[in-house]
Amino acid sequence: MLVPPWLERLLNTAFFSICRTHGDAARSECNMFCLDCNADAFCFYCRSSKHKDHQVIQIRRSSYHDVVRVSEIQKILDISGVQTYVINSARVLFLNERPQPKGGKAVSHVCEICGRSLLDTFRFCSLGCKLVGIKGNGDASFIIQGISASSSSNYNQDEEELRDGSQQDIYPPTPPPPPSTSRSRRKGIPQRAPFRS
User: Fold this and answer.
1) What tens digit of pLDDT does each residue of 67-118 get?
2) Distance between CA atoms of residues 77 and 70, nearest Å
């Protein structure tokens, strides 16, 4: 089994609707998903009453797309090969493929499934694209037990480098600008506008 039974349901679930039971409450948007029940999304109040001792993940939004925090999902799913992003100081990944704007510059790294440009040498832009890749090729997995000791230690080393801030291998340093022989574009000392009285 390369794919957990709840994953496809998670990727097809509509999040952020108002809870039918707790619609009048402040935190009533359905942004939780229970891995044990494998059912529809539910709100904060439903979690405390119906899913108290279950494995639950919280879905968040970024630019109108559903994301999940890496710290929550990596405990239960092998997310290797999926591009992650830092949004509001939290590392997240997208659940499903996002439309790519047409045109733009050529990029060296693209998602194997949808062709979206990627920041690093990842294979997929989202969990949904990784799922399609697994079903098509079978050369990847979501099951954590399938990770070998060597790839696990490499992953931990990569995480350690990210925490230390030494990202030289991931993001090459920006080259200095070429030396300019022309005069500076500034035309003098900046002066404050006169006050009106």
Assistant:
1) 999 999 999 999 999 999 999 999 999 999 987 776 667 778 888 889 888 9
2) 10
pLDDT tens digits for range 7-30: 999 999 999 999 998 888 888 899
Contact indicator for 142, 7 with CB cutoff of 8 Å: yes
Question: Is residue 74 a contact partner of residue 53, using CB atoms and an 8 Å limit?
Answer: no
Alpha-carbon distances of 98 from 63, 114, 127, 129, 161, rounded to whole Å:
10, 9, 11, 10, 29
Cα separation, 16 vs 61, whole angstroms? 9
- Torsions phi, psi for 164 (to 5 deg): -75, -15
The span from the CA of 7 to the CA of 16, in Å, is: 18
Give, in order, the Cα–Cα distances in Å from 123 to each of 2, 84, 188, 195.
17, 11, 50, 58
Most confident range, picked from 54-63, 98-107, 160-169:
54-63
* Strands, E assignment, 21-176: 32-34, 56-62, 65-69, 85-87, 90-94
**CA separation (Å) from 177 to 150, 171, 180?**
40, 17, 8
Contact 27, 147 (CB under 8 A): no
Q: How far apart are the first and last CA of the chain?
A: 78
Six-digit token string for 82: 């999926």
Half-sphere exposure at residue 100, Cβ-oriented, CA atoms within 13 angstroms: 17
